[in-house]
Specification:
- The protein is built from 12 helices and no strands.
- The protein is an all-alpha fold.
- It is globular, with a radius of gyration of 30 Å.
Length: 303
């Protein structure tokens, strides 16, 4: 017979003396109305003009400039500072052509020198981007495969042919312009450098996606507000038209039109690359610069 007393359902078993009671969870007291609330994490500080200029010269040229900041805010200011970079490169190209003409060289050699200066100041990165973009577009492959082709270190047939014709077109256009006058060739070289870098500002406007999650394209794609991009383009067109006055007052409209044509050609290429690659890359930015410069030079030969 079981003599164990029957426990009622409401009776709890005696606690084990060796078992420690579980601590009650701590409840954070709600802040009183007068208490300070911790501030939310602050956004990255706004980039200064110095940060932007360092970013622009450090990424768009091979000049020994130390990039102080590498973030989206610095990229925004940096891409808006692409115009001073373009003007610097263009003026260097014009000066080299002028020096050779002063020393007695012909227009063809002066044109070759003016085309070589931007390549040297960028270590050929824009030309390499042009060749890689041509290989990617010419492959006819889907976006992922085309991007892999563009990332290879070698240059395919489409890239070689594109480089050949673009460089020949630039040299031929400048040779013709230098042949007419030193001023005409020098202004064209400077304008081409300015328009080429302004095309990069336009390509970095908001709404332009990056094709890869890394690289220069991912760093600068979509950082420039649309109004600022349009303002930069308008400034470049006005500056080129004003520079045309150094040649002839009647040349001002043609120089403004050349700038518009260069920017339009680069914009068409950027839109096509977005459709083909699902975004832009650093190689595409290089191709846009060379396309804008070439289109602007070709238009100037018609004036």
């Amino acid at each position: 017979m079981d003599t164990t007393p029957e426990q009622s359902p409401d009776r709890q078993p005696d606690p084990d003396p060796e078992q420690q009671p579980e601590p009650e969870p701590e409840i954070s007291p709600s802040p009183s109305p007068g208490a300070e609330i911790p501030p939310r994490p602050a956004h990255p500080p706004r980039a200064s003009l110095d940060d932007g200029l360092r970013f622009a010269f450090g990424t768009l040229t091979a000049l020994p400039v130390q990039v102080a900041r590498w973030d989206r805010e610095a990229a925004r200011v940096g891409m808006l500072c692409a115009l001073p970079v373009g003007l610097t490169v263009g003026l260097c190209a014009a000066a080299m052509g002028g020096v050779l003409l002063f020393l007695g060289a012909g227009p063809l050699l002066a044109a070759v020198a003016s085309v070589a200066v931007p390549a040297v100041l960028t270590r050929g990165l824009h030309l390499d981007g042009l060749a890689d973009t041509a290989d990617g577009l010419g492959s006819g492959k889907p976006a992922d495969e085309a991007l892999r082709i563009m990332k290879r270190s070698d240059i395919g047939p489409f890239g070689v042919i594109t480089l050949l014709f673009v460089l020949l077109a630039q040299v031929a256009a400048l040779a013709e312009l230098y042949g007419e006058s030193w001023t005409r060739g020098a202004v064209a070289a400077a304008a081409a450098g300015l328009v080429a870098r302004c095309a990069l500002t336009l390509a970095a406007r908001q709404g332009m996606p990056a094709a890869r999650p890394e690289g220069l394209g991912a760093a600068v794609a979509g950082v420039v507000p649309p109004r600022a991009a349009v303002g930069a383009a308008a400034l470049a067109v006005v500056a080129c038209a004003g520079a045309g006055a150094l040649v002839d007052v009647y040349a001002m409209p043609m120089h403004g039109l050349a700038a518009l044509a260069g920017l339009a050609a680069a914009d068409l290429l950027s839109r096509h690359c977005v459709r083909r690659f699902d975004g832009v890359t650093g190689d595409v930015f290089g191709a846009l610069a060379e396309t804008a410069a070439t289109a602007a030079l070709l238009v100037l030969t018609f004036g």
